[in-house]
Request: fold
Amino acid sequence: MEGAEIFHFRIEEENQMDVRKGLILLTAAAFLLAPGNMVLAGEDSVAEGKESKSEEIKPHAAELQEQAEEKKTFEIHGGVVGFYQGSTIATVEGDRLKTKFGPGIAADLTVTYRPPVSLFENGQFFVRVHTGAGRGSDHNVGDNLFANLNTLADNSDDFQTDFDDAFWLAEAYYMHEFWNGKFAFVVGKTEPVVFIDNNEFANDPNSQFVGKPFVNNPVMNSEDQLAPLMAATIKPIESVSITALGVSSSHPNAPLESSQKSIYSNVFDQPMIAFQVAYTHSFGQLVGNYRVYYWNAMYHHENSAGDTSPDGWGVGISCDQMVTQKLGLFGRVAYSSEDAFDSDWFWSVGANLKGIVPGRDKDELGLGIAGLKGTIGPDNLGTEFHTELYYRIVLTENFAVSPDIQYVSDPMGNPHNDGIFAGMVRAEFSF
Reply:
């Protein structure tokens, strides 16, 4: 399924005890999965409560399709991302936000399985288990911005049920392809951003930008949940794909808590729906992807000013294009209902550069600038600007380290609010 890439990890903070617990559990998992400690089947073998809003684990379908083409029966992948992040003291909307520095960790174990029977010849099951602790800068400032600073922490310390104190089942779905891959159907539990608003250079907080405006459309992302979902993609021609989906909603932006519900109850009651048309074009070896999407969370909304809307909807564009073998550019622009949300217009632009340091061809530098315009008068009608810069140092095939810095000016669209600096060091391990 086009535009989808496996997301392996997440990271967060809260207290050192949770981080140690996560590290112990993940070390044990890595030992059990290590060659010699576990035998994998070969080609011939055979809640209640809150849910994710992350830009966390994105498009898996493309990798699932590759595995189906290679006739692999059983695949296990995983990864751990550890970080240390902090931000400066700032006054936002009259609140003095103290500086906060701290570690975090996020990890995912993914399994894909293609049953060796003719009925499932073109189908695969996908499961992802997640754990995480620590929020970094978002511990103090995340709720005081239109778009938060640490997407890695979106699913940390906020599990589905009380007994999910170590690991929780983030995703579990089945995908089946028809007509040589021209049509694909997905049913199970996953999130809308697996299928829409994808981007080659700004979509994966594990290895690219960590700030929300450079991972997905932040307004749509406030509706994004890991929930029961059905999706279908058709490719009328090789360069074009059309996707439609419906996903259960807990009604997270409803005006009253009593109007919210579990994602598992009344699954078809005012769900979120979305559609995307994607076009891929190559200029020689330089590939570009251009996507237009629409989404609608169909329950009653109310913004901070008390404006109401019978639903919350938006439209957006997400593009990425290789300009040279080393330089790629990306951009997003979107509009959302101003009566339903505190921000309507959103945009982001940026660049990805590979191998700019001699002898380090796999290293990447990313630079992005984004803006979210406020809708709540009289003080929050301006634009909240985000800038982010990271440099990813690839040390081995399975290990990379990235320093990252962000700056936010005019938080909440108010020029009287202090600007916020945030810095992070991120380490990725994958297997």
Residues 354 and 364 are 5 Å apart (CA to CA).
